[in-house]
Amino acid sequence: MNEQTNLPHKERHTQNRDAITLKILLIGVLIVILIIPMFMIQNLISERENTAKEATTEVQQKWSGPQTIIGPVLTLSYTYQDEKGKNKTGYINYLPDQLDITGDIETQELKRGLYEIIVYNSSLELKGKFISKDLLETNLSRDIKWNENATLNLGVSDLRGICEQVALTWNGQKYNMEPGVNPNSIVYTGTSIHLNVSDLLTPDKTIDFSVKLTTKGSASILFAPVGKTTNVALNSNCPTPSFSGAFLPSEREVNPNGFTSKWKVLEINRNFSQVLRSYQPDLSNYTPSNPIRPGEISIVSSSIFGVDLLFPVDHYQKSTRSAKYAFLIIVLTFVVCFFVEIVQKKNIYPLQYLLVGLALCLFYTLLVSTSEHISFTWAYLLSALATTTLITLYMVGILKIKKTAFTIGGLLVCLYTYIFFLIQLETYALLAGSIGLFVILAIVMYFSQKINWHNN
Asked: Do residues 229 and 290 both lie within one domain?
């Protein structure tokens, strides 16, 4: 008699258990399916980011690219006899004893469609001196004869950015520098001028110089420490600089109105001497497929330093980081909805789960599209508010229980808030994310054990 009474109950229990198992499997399948639109959204973000980079490159090509200033450097020639007694020509690059660079950098933003690109105008003055001591003490291990005519080279990476004539004051005389550099120089693009340097070939001589350089550029401005002592002092209205290269500023101050920075680099800090030797290349093996360009790879490149001029916010990067947490939000939302089904004895159909998941995916397209027009913070707030409101109202219609629906909406608010603060972090992002996931998993495990699975 008892067996007959308990049999229908066991069958119902088995059927309910099978139904729960099937629902869990369906939810898992839906989560896998929703990975497809998330991949499409991540590709969309990458595509928009690449479009922004193309716009930046196009503006830089028309305005001017990043600028690297090297010099001034003297390229001197001399004659000597080789082992066979033939006259040969050699070259050296002689660096200044003192180099002081001061400059003002004024940034501005140019628009290309939806995109803003930061560019700048700079006004630089390079002052210093050459002394004869290191030059005359050069050990070339041969009897040589100096040529009194030399080339003063100033490396400028993008000549399109030069806005005014490059004015040189050399030993009290004023000159205008010309385009192109000596092919035996350590720089391969810039301006130069031919000078008589006979004074440097006599002992205890010093030649002072100054160069006024007005340029425009984009993204960054860099310098090479070619002086035995190199001092660089910059002022700018850019509030978000990133100091880069081989040396950081010895002094810097950054505020919302801009920054000031100072560098001091000594000869001992770099991996090259004051006199850099080079020879005229053998052009007999020159072919179009094997061109010889002396000085194309500069020995000073490893010591270049300066500043990158950045935008305050890279919304595409932040959108990409937020999209990486999409799987977490979808899983947690589905788990909560499933728990509601069990506890509240409500039935949420697979199609309804799918629609909720698509609404969660739509958050990221809203975020990307709105962040292209307004700040990322406001775009995130509006997108999260729209998505949360949509899902909450939909759950009200499904469950017919406002309190439960608003609880789900509150959960989404907490998740979006947590992820917003998480993507703002840099150093502690991994730590905060790991702790947050641990806490979330602990909460889910706690509530799962409160559910009486045997009566469902």
From this structure: yes
pLDDT in tens, 87-142: 777 788 889 999 999 999 998 877 776 667 778 899 999 999 998 887 777 766 55
C-alpha–C-alpha distance, residues 81 and 266, integer Å: 35
Where is the domain boundary, 248, 281, 309?
309
| pTM of the complete model | 0.69
Question: Domain range spanning residue 330?
Answer: 2-54+315-455
Lookup result for tokens 């499997």 = 25
Cα–Cα distances in angstroms (integers) from residue 423 to residues 40, 247, 280, 417, 426, in the given order: 21, 29, 55, 10, 8
Residue 344 lies in a domain: yes
Amino acid at 221: I
